From TrEMBL:
One of its GO terms (cellular component) is mitochondrial inner membrane. Keywords: Membrane, Mitochondrion, Mitochondrion inner membrane, Repeat, Transmembrane, Transmembrane helix, Transport. Its main location: mitochondrion. The keyword RNA-binding does not apply. Solcar repeats lie at residues 65-157, 165-229. SUPFAM superfamilies: Mitochondrial carrier. One of its GO terms (molecular function) is L-glutamate transmembrane transporter activity. This is Uncharacterized protein. The gene is Nfu_g_1_017758. Belongs to the mitochondrial carrier (TC 2.A.29) family. The lineage of its organism: Eukaryota, Metazoa, Chordata, Craniata, Vertebrata.
Amino acid sequence: FGQITPMEIDILFQLVGLHSHSGRLNHTDIERVAPLEEGAMPYHLAETQRPHAHETSRSVWLQAAESAYRFTLGSIAGATGATAVYPIDLVKTRMQNQRSTGSFVGELMYKNSFDCAKKVLRYEGFFGFYRGLLPQLIGVAPEKAIKLTVNDFVRDKFTTQDDTIPLLAEILAGGCAGASQVIFTNPLEIVKIRLQVAGEITTGPRVSALSVVRDLGFLGLYKGAKACF
């Protein structure tokens, strides 16, 4: 189509409008304006084979580079989002896990979310809001990246030539993406939660990620993984 000038297209529209009120062009009309050279493929066959030829011409290295690019973008997006909302996640975890203070029967440690945030800031400082952030970053960046990469990979395999994806393929892509990230992120999620609530304990040795892994063991790191599937 690059050999057809805008003026020729305009003239063609005017001529087609005399015979058809729809004003639509087809390949036959274009061939009348720009006749094919000897040995050239007809326009309708060229357009039909163009998507397939583009897909087969892509090398394995190019597809791997695209996957790496998507993985990197997903990692950056996931890490940025996790850092921004982490203080809220810490307050939420402590509110869900809160217990009585021991001073009076039935007295809770936090009155509400604002009281929880105030006590964290008072007794643990500003960086107390980011306790356990490192396991979260280690987990959330690959989590988002794996989900996006697997989802895009499955979607690409089921995309038809007219750029549509069947509904079952959409569901399969989402299921594969979610299942693939659970295997990697569930241990890191448990470590993160243990570190988040460890700030409430003022006595005893300091809790670290390594000590949590040592106490739970390999199988303990996958507690609750079935619910994620």
